[in-house]
Amino acid sequence: MEQLKIAVQKAGRLHDESMALLKDCGIYIDNGREQLKAASSNFPIEIYYLRNGDIPQYLKDGVVDCAILGENILIEKGQELSVVDWLGFSKCRVSLAVPKTFKYNSINDLNGKRIATSYPETTQNFLTQNNIQAELHLINGSVEIAPNIGLADAICDIVSSGNTLFKNNLKEVEVIFKSQAVLAVSPSISKKGGEILNKLRFRIRSVLHGRNSRYVLLNAPNHKLAEIINLLPGMKSPTLLPLAEAGWSSVHSVVNSDAFWEVIEELREAGAEGILVCPIEKMII
Ligand SMILES: Nc1ncnc2c1ncn2[C@@H]1O[C@H](COP(=O)(O)OP(=O)(O)OP(=O)(O)O)[C@@H](O)[C@H]1O
Ligand SMILES: O=P(O)(O)OC[C@H]1O[C@H](OP(=O)(O)OP(=O)(O)O)[C@H](O)[C@@H]1O
Ligand SMILES: [Mg+2]
Questions:
Q1: Lower CB density within 10 Å: C or N end of the chain?
Q2: How far is 155 from 97, CA to CA, in rounded Å?
Q3: What is the structure's pLDDT at 31?
Q4: What is the architecture of the domain spanning 4-89+180-210?
């Protein structure tokens, strides 16, 4: 039986959350990453544990059908490959940074300067778009140290919390783009592979919608219902059930995780009581 070949980072920042996502999709993986490949006992998928930086080439060559990788690596090494889903983890940005003492007014201040980076394509494209000529120095790790050891005047690297920049006395001056983990596809995926991929994508979407939502239950006096329902859009519209006590109802709905504290405050002000907030395992839309 044909299997969908999916690449996942062998070790590093993407590995754990990629595996957790497959697990939440109900896919059991038989063996660990000590081996290059692993199979699943309950879904037609084969996992290839690879380096994030090598994955775009494996996708182009059709060695794997799809992959979970950082969008920034795809922009650097695989612009022609398609992203089919944005997975919401490993969020970061690719930015230019300079020493805190550098008097930076605009990108023009980088003309003629030396820039250290692990992302030469991304950096060069950004500089070209802005008509800047600079000398690039390719470094594969700890790029932030380059200005401090006199190797470069600026860097282009990943920034997340900003701690690494701070520790190295650097400041972020240009955000080139924002990145997160994505599901990307090989141009040579077969028809059957595409069908399995669609099943996987359906599961991934259900898991991600569930993660981004909360199930809210509350009690409210009937004369307050109109105002409360107005605050709760729900999937279709909120569920309304009568309470044993006359004049009261129970309202059930789904609220977006990002907005839910604000919504809860508004609900309380509108007269809601006994509010319960529960996680949603899967949400099929
Ligand atoms: N500090 C960070 N915060 C959030 N996401 C990050 C951070 N650093 C990297 N990432 C994201 O995780 C991906 C993997 O980063 P990691 O440092 O594990 O590997 P890598 O050096 O790209 O990989 P490999 O050795 O597997 O080729 C990056 O491409 C980026 O998308
Ligand atoms: O803004 P921050 O939260 O400090 O994150 C940014 C740092 O994280 C990444 O490095 P990583 O820790 O993956 O080490 P690496 O250079 O060995 O890949 C990236 O290359 C930055 O150095
Ligand atoms: Mg890293």
A1: N
A2: 5
A3: 73
A4: 3-Layer(aba) Sandwich (3.40)
